[in-house]
Amino acid sequence: MTETLLIVDPDPATQRAMVDALQAGRYRTITADGFGTAARLLESVRPDLLITVVRLGAFNGLHLVVLGRERDSRMSALVVDDRHDTVLEREALMAGATAYLTGPVEADTLLRCVAQALARRERRWWNRTPLASNVEVGTGAGTARLLDIGYGGFRLESGTMHLHHELKLELPVLGLAVNAQRVWSCETQVPSVWCCGAALVAPSDSDSTQRWRRLVDTVRAGAAFRSSHSRH
Fold it and tell me: Is the CB of residue 95 less than 8 Å from the CB of residue 87?
């Protein structure tokens, strides 16, 4: 698979230099020289990685990072500034950027950071985040204890989950419900309690999946998971 990279830079020379370096690295590139065009491409193309400069006239490249990750929480981002600013660096990372770079960026540095950002994107998808508290959730067929969550699914403990192939994870306090399919199940050391892994079935661009991924990001950032059934 060839990843698609969106490069946003109003300066034709620096934009061309980045495109040349990335195409030499066998990436597919699309470009925008302003906020409006970039915002439309984020919606229509859904790039795997956004590379944007900070200053875009009346707008800020950090806004594009937030906008892009609202549309696709898997999207990675690199922010390039013409001078180092500690406050902007912190804000860029808080907005979801993988790295904050000071230009001009050498080709080998750019390719290395792109590779790292895309690798982190894949880890974000597959990694599971354990929940610190005991969280009981509705499943459409009773309740279960939610053990961990990831972009692609979750793991549960229950006395009945192994009997059901189709699952519906319900989080009414968040106004969220996601459909999933049981992928595997195994008995635990506790009699009559099974552990099951499930994968989301909704398209990646669906509202429920995007909201689920934002929840995962929030938990990974250190926020406590709460449901109407949480026990402490």
Answer: no
Domain 4-126 CATH class label:
alpha beta
As a whole number of angstroms, the distance between CA 42 and CA 40 comes to: 5
Alpha carbon distance 96, 81 (integer Å) = 16
Q: Which amino acid is at 221?
A: A
Strands 49-53 and 76-81: parallel
Q: If you classify domain 129-220 with CATH, what class do you get?
A: mainly beta
**What's the pTM value of the predicted model, to 2 decimals?**
0.59
Q: What is the largest CA-CA distance in the chain?
A: 67
pLDDT band at 232 (very low <50, low <70, confident <90, very high): very low
99 vs 125: CA distance, rounded Å: 18
Residues of the chain with CATH 3.40.50.2300: 4-126
